[in-house]
Amino acid sequence: MSRISVRGFAVASATAVTTVGAVVGVASGNAAQPANDNFEATAADTTLLADIPAGDQAQVQVSSLSEQADVQAAAADSVARKSAEEAARVQAAKSAEAKKAAADKAEEDKKKAEKAEKDRKDAEARASRSSLRDATSFAAQSSYSVSQVQAMARQMIPADQFQCFSNIVSHESTWNYRAVNASSGAYGLVQALPGSKMSSAGADWQTNPATQIKWGLSYMNGRYGSPCGAWQFWSANRWY
Q1: Beta carbons within 10 angstroms of residue 140's beta carbon
Q2: Is residue 164 within 8 Å of 171, Cβ to Cβ?
Q3: What Å distances lie between residue 8 and 36, 41, 43, 64, CA to CA?
Q4: pLDDT tens, residue by residue, 135-177
Q5: What is the CA radius of gyration of the chain?
Q6: pLDDT tens digits, residue range 86-106?
Q7: Which residues of 166-188 are buried (b: 16+ CB within 10 A; e: fewer)?
Q8: pTM of the model
Q9: Terminus of the chain with fewer CB atoms < 10 Å: N or C?
Q10: Which among 129, 147, 152 is positioned nearest to 214, based on CA atoms?
């Protein structure tokens, strides 16, 4: 016996019920009319379960149940896939949030460390400045050696700025507080031009290296922010 194809057990059953109802209506004398034109087309194109030989009805029912099982399995797979995708999305969001929190903490720790280091340096600078000597604290001498002038500078200039100051003075006057530039007239350790500018630091600017150091430090701080700022400019331009 050849296998009979149907659109589906559910459709066949529904159609059979509808058709049986129509037949019963005719038998009872009720002239039942189709609900719509599509009914006749559907009935004509559908093999009713009642029209199928009894031996093949079980096969049709099994086939329909198998189709339903396939549909249910596909629906279950879709639900499982969506559930897995949602779980993956939630996990990714949690992972991203954790990474952001870790990055924020690392940035905060970095800022705290930088602030602590800045505070430490500021404290050292303040301590250094508080221990610095003023130009007037040195006893006047008739002459000064290079080592004496350098020792004075170390006591007047912050420790973290001394090397920069020394670099400039070494290039400008080789630590000779009486050095004179023959062409320009610049004078002293820092080669002030004109030399009389240093009178703002003391009337003994020509003979007292401490007065020259005081003026030179004030000039570098005022124009370049610090001796190291002045040295950076000097390195690039060979003057300051």
Answers
A1: 11
A2: no
A3: 22, 16, 13, 6
A4: 999 999 999 999 999 999 999 999 999 999 999 999 999 999 9
A5: 51
A6: 999 999 999 898 999 899 888
A7: bbbbeebbebebebeeeeeebbb
A8: 0.50
A9: N
A10: 152
